[in-house]
Write a structure and sequence with these properties.
The protein has 1 helix and 7 strands; from the N terminus they run E-E-E-E-E-E-E-H. It is mostly beta strands. The strands form 2 sheets. A 4-stranded antiparallel beta sheet has the order 2-3-4-5, with no helix packed on it. The chain has a 3-stranded antiparallel beta sheet with strand order 1-7-6. Strand 3 and strand 4 form a beta hairpin. The longest helix is centred in the last third of the chain and has 5 residues, at about 105-110.
Length: about 110
Amino acid sequence: MAAREVVLDSLDPHFTVQAQLDGATYTLELEWLDTIGAWFVSLLGSDGEPVLSGLKVVVNWPITWRYRTRGVPPGHLVFQAGGDGESSPPARLELGERVKLYYIDAAGVDA
């Protein structure tokens, strides 16, 4: 199994990051919604078209596990938390710090 971190290094409440996932380039769009007090993530393909939209960020659960539709990477995206409260959702400034995003490649998912 090969898992690698997708670096989230912005303090902005709405930002994007590009990542290579099993050889394809994707854009992840992350947005903090103050009214709900939660982060949401969308996944866009290399053409900029949405693949998955508006998924609530949950910790220690592969957010793409049930989506096996065209355009979804074959591996899993997982937000993992460290330290105290390791299963609590990320607060506004915790992405990339206490809560990190990892991609488990297709070979790791099939193992």
